[in-house]
Amino acid sequence: MRHPAVPTTRFYQRCGIRDADLRRGYEACRRATRTQGEIEYAVSLLMPPPLRIATWALLGAGYCVDNLVDAADAPGGEIGSTGEAGPGRAERLEAWISAFEADLRDGRGTDPVRKALIHTMLTWNVPPGFLHTQFEELRQDVHGKQCATWQEWRRNSQLIVVPFALRAASLLLRAAGLSAEPEAIAAGVPEAAMAWQTAADAVYLTDSLVDLSDDLDRDHVPLPQEALDEAGVRRVDLLARRATPAFEDMVRHLADRARTCLDRAPLPRVLHPAVSIAFDTYTDLYRLCLKTVADAPAALLHRRPALPRSARLRLLLPARAKAALAWGLFPFPIQPGPPPDPVPVGAPGKLGLAEEVRPLAAQRRPIVPPTPHPSGARPPKLTAEAMPRHVAIVMDGNGRWATNRGLARSDGHRAGGEALVDVVHGALEIGLKHLTVYAFSTENWKRPADELLALMDEIPKGLRRLANDTEPLGVRVRWAGVRARLPADVTEALEDAERATRDHTGLTLTLCVNYGGRTEIATAAAKLARDAVARRIDPGSVSEHAFSRYLHVPELPDVDLLLRTGGDQRTSNFLPWQATYAELLFLDTPWPDVDRRDLWHAMEQYARRARRYGSVPRIPAQPTTLTGLH
Ligand code: FPP
Question: How is domain 1-143 classified at the architecture level of CATH?
Answer without folding.
Answer: Orthogonal Bundle (1.10)
